[in-house]
Design a protein that fits this description.
By secondary structure, this protein is α+β, with helices and mostly antiparallel strands. It is built from eleven helices and six strands. The protein has helices spanning about 10-30, 35-50, 65-85, 110-115, 120-125, 130-140, 145-155, 155-175, 180-200, 200-205, 235-250; strands at about 210-215, 230, 255-260, 265-270, 275-280, 290-295. The relative contact order is 0.13.
Length: about 300
């Protein structure tokens, strides 16, 4: 950490805003929820403004490290509340998608500037302990050294190294190291959507992997939006996709391609209202769909807005 003090003239609000994007990225990847992340950042702001009875900024040698530590610890506390909510959640639980603002969104879009962890990776991170997840996010995603992480979560460097090792082994056992090229992902997404919404069984049989799995997170708030468990196997997935095809052919659903958690994905709209966000996971060679993540719980789509091309 730097020993250079922050000048007294620095404004507390300006310092917080300067590091807000970093904190958002860290916390969101720890929690998988935009709403909870915003709440944690509000709690961090309150802690920041109340620090040491309002101690001046020149007493804080490294405001970036100070703010990230506050945010991470608030996120760890919030993680327990999220876990309790998940225990009573209706059906599969998926992270809240982080959707870029528009089809032509550029580098100034906050959703693209945030260090992107794919939706599929966030699902894997759900199986880590809160501390393992915090260490993995800080080290693997944001590049924090183990010594600095130890100071953030108040553990020894040896304990952090052990947490990092366990988390990395767990994640790598469940996620292939290979990631398909963005162009391949976009083409696969478009092929899948055309076949699924058009009810083209032959095309779906060609693009779906035999062991494909569909996770549909509706939170019990959508009719015929999927079962209470993930649907596994090509035959069962074909039957499930038939419901979306019927709505698509009836003209009830419109679609827009967007970047979701850094990957190409498709948004389905019913009129002006978001109906679902659909993200694909591809086989290592990138030519077939191995997983489909469908988030249709309206509570998780409040940040999704339709923008006509």
């Amino acid at each position: 950490m730097s020993d250079i003090p922050v000048p007294v003239t620095d404004d507390a609000t300006g310092v917080f805003v300067e590091h807000r994007e970093l904190m958002f990225g860290v916390v969101y990847n720890m929690l998988g929820s935009v709403a909870d992340t915003e709440d944690v950042l509000q709690e961090t702001w309150l802690s920041w403004t109340a620090r040491g009875g309002g101690a001046p900024l020149d007493r804080i040698m490294n405001p970036r490290a100070y703010l990230v530590r506050i945010a991470v610890n608030h996120a760890l506390a919030r993680r327990a509340a999220i876990s309790r909510r998940q225990e009573t959640y209706v059906g599969p639980w998926l992270p809240e998608p982080l959707v870029a603002d528009g089809e032509g969104a550029g580098a100034d879009d906050p959703a693209l500037r945030t260090e992107s962890v794919s939706l599929a990776m966030l699902v894997v991170l759900e199986s880590l302990t809160p501390l393992e997840r915090a260490v993995f996010v800080l080290h693997e995603v944001f590049g924090y050294p183990h010594k600095e992480i130890a100071e953030i979560i108040d553990r020894s460097p040896a304990a952090v190294r052990q947490l990092a090792h366990r988390a990395r082994e767990h994640v790598h056992a469940r996620r292939p190291l290979y990631e398909a090229h963005p162009r391949v992902r976009r083409e696969a997404t478009e092929r899948f959507v055309r076949a699924a919404l058009g009810g083209d069984i032959a095309a779906l049989l060609e693009i779906l992997a035999p062991d494909v799995t569909v996770w549909t997170d509706a939170g019990g708030k959508r009719k015929r939006a999927g079962g209470m468990r993930p649907v596994h196997g090509r035959d069962k997935v074909l039957r499930l996709l038939g419901s979306y095809a019927n709505r698509g052919r009836g003209g009830h659903l419109d679609l827009r391609y967007r970047r979701v958690n850094g990957d190409d994905a498709v948004l389905l709209f019913d009129g002006e209202e978001p109906y679902a966000v659909m993200v694909l996971d591809l086989t290592p060679d990138g030519d077939r769909v191995s997983g489909v993540y469908v988030v249709s719980n309206p509570d998780k789509l409040t940040h999704v807005h339709r923008e006509d091309a």
